Task: inverse folding
């Protein structure tokens, strides 16, 4: 069984959550909402490239350029293998956290 890295897991989850609206900026914004931390745009592109190379995502260029005259957006989609890996990491996370009390509540005594 191949286990995703944490950043790969976070990226795949963001792409899954965003559906048809998963492109660079929207992915970064989703990750920021999910983690509560600021992410530099460049921090997501190397792992995204790795996910693409490993067959977990594929990219789809937008049909037209942006209204601001920039480059066209590139949208990301999960492959069936990416969906499989995401389901696997969810099961792993549930298994390793099974039986652990709410630590935030435990440590905030």
Result:
């Amino acid at each position: 069984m191949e286990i995703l890295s944490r950043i790969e897991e976070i990226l795949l989850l963001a792409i899954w959550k965003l559906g048809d609206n998963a492109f660079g900026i929207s992915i970064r914004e989703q990750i920021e909402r999910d983690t509560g931390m600021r992410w530099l745009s460049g921090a997501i592109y190397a792992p995204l490239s790795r996910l693409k190379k490993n067959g977990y995502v594929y990219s789809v260029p937008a049909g037209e350029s942006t209204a601001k005259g920039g480059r066209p957006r590139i949208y990301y989609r999960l492959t069936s293998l990416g969906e499989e890996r995401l389901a696997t990491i969810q099961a792993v996370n549930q298994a390793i956290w099974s039986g652990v009390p709410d630590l935030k509540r435990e440590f905030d005594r």
Remarks:
- Helices lie at 6-18, 24-35, 42-53, 80-97, 103-107.
- Residues 6-107 form a domain with the Arc Repressor Mutant, subunit A fold (CATH 1.10.10.10).
- The radius of gyration is 16 Å.
